[in-house]
Specification:
19 helices; mainly alpha; 2 domains; 0% strand; 73% helix; single chain
Length: 402
């Protein structure tokens, strides 16, 4: 969407009109402007999302005089967590049904077109349904809800802004020049990351792989040198970071023009000295969402932190795509975090100080980046090669593939 001239027209005119309006009209105007822009890109899918959003919004606002007249079965349904299941059902239907239909039609496992922003929309709406059921939100209106749910700058790829955070931010009533300064600077940083540094990373990948790409290395008849594979994997990781964090910068900067300070998604992840720290710095809004709503639920269900963390990251992988590549990527990170939890217990029990030194921190940093880069062997093959190619690439990196 950000490559469309219409988007940049929206960004040039939208904030100006927003700040010229009376305070009580700004949030409804932001909601309508976002919906108008998304209607161009999302088409009929947006109508379904709007209908589902309205259903979830209304589900928690049935007046007592209505619920008092409901028959016992309908009253039980009204008090059940059905809005949460409705959002989950929509997510599964919209994201995975097209892929399943493609497979059943003998099209193979490939990336297929899914509704714009369905993943982030669904996770935000599920967050809303869960927290409304818990009674954790302050009073708000439909305009607040719609402006948050369909906020155009973050609709397609996040960050996953929490509703309570949005409500605090949208209370800003007076324009300040720093909104423009901070927003434009952040947008510029994102553009440099996405279209300059990302392009350089792609060119370097082509250079080190002889224009074969990472997929070409994995599918080649001859085994590539381990150094070449590692260079390609690290450059691929760098490209993913520049592309995704660049988009997040543009989304956060664009929202800042409206006075909104959206939640951060990245915080120097390549400085992490262990995998847990990495996930506290990488795609932070998704990691926090999964920790809050999946990991804690799995802990309560299994009473086993190792099972919970592997299951959580398996779900995170499936959130990206219901295919073996992303599932294995999730399991890979889940197993790494489970091992790190076990190692932490041994460190405390046996008072091991190996990684508490400066040299140990450097070793931890190197191992973390190597582990994350190896995990990219799964996702880089998605839609291009079978899962076996990912394992062959890992084998080549470790010097054990034939």
């Amino acid at each position: 969407m950000i490559q469309s001239s219409l988007w940049w027209c929206f960004l040039a005119a939208g904030p100006v009109l927003y700040w010229l309006l009376p305070v009580h009209w700004r949030t409804p105007a932001l909601a309508l402007a976002s919906l108008g822009l998304l209607a161009v890109f999302a088409g009929h899918d947006l109508l379904i999302m709007m209908a589902l959003g309205l259903v979830v919004y209304a589900a928690f606002r049935l007046p007592p005089r209505v619920t008092a007249r409901l028959p016992a079965p309908m009253l039980a349904l009204a008090r059940s967590p059905w809005p949460i299941w409705a959002v989950l059902a929509y997510f599964l239907w919209a994201k995975y049904l097209p892929s399943l239909a493609h497979v059943l039609s003998a099209g193979g496992v490939q990336a297929v077109l899914i509704p714009l922003g369905v993943s982030y929309f669904s996770f935000k709406l599920m967050h809303y349904a869960i927290e409304m059921r818990r009674g954790n939100f302050p009073a708000h209106g439909l305009a607040d809800f719609a402006a948050w749910l369909f906020l155009a700058p973050i609709f397609t790829a996040g960050p996953i802004e929490r509703f309570e955070h949005f409500l605090r931010e949208r209370q800003i009533q007076r324009f300040e020049t720093r909104f423009v300064q901070e927003g434009v600077l952040r947008i510029a940083q994102g553009l440099v990351k996405k279209f300059v540094l990302g392009w350089i990373a792609l060119e370097l990948i082509d250079h080190v792989t002889g224009r074969a790409g990472v997929v070409g290395l994995a599918l080649a008849e001859t085994t590539a040198p381990a150094a070449t594979v590692w260079a390609a994997l690290f450059l691929t990781l760098a490209y993913v970071y520049f592309d995704f964090s660049g988009y997040s910068d543009i989304a956060i900067g664009s929202s800042r023009l409206f006075g909104l300070r959206i939640m951060e998604n990245f915080n120097l992840p390549f400085l992490a000295t262990n995998l847990q720290m990495f996930w506290q710095r990488w795609h932070m809004t998704l990691a926090n969402w999964c920790r809050t709503y999946i990991y804690m639920s799995m802990i309560g269900l299994t009473r086993n932190p190792y099972v919970a963390v592997v299951a959580t990251f398996a779900v995170m992988g499936l959130w990206h795509s219901a295919g073996p590549h992303w599932l294995m990527w999730g399991v890979w990170h889940g197993l790494g975090l489970a091992w790190l939890m076990f190692w932490g217990q041994q460190v405390r029990k046996r008072k091991i100080g190996l990684f508490k030194t400066r040299a140990g921190a450097v070793a931890g940093w190197a191992m973390t980046l190597c582990y994350v880069a190896l995990g990219g062997s799964f996702t880089v093959m998605y839609g291009h090669a079978p899962i076996g190619a990912s394992f062959r690439l890992i084998g080549m990196a470790l010097g054990i593939a034939g």
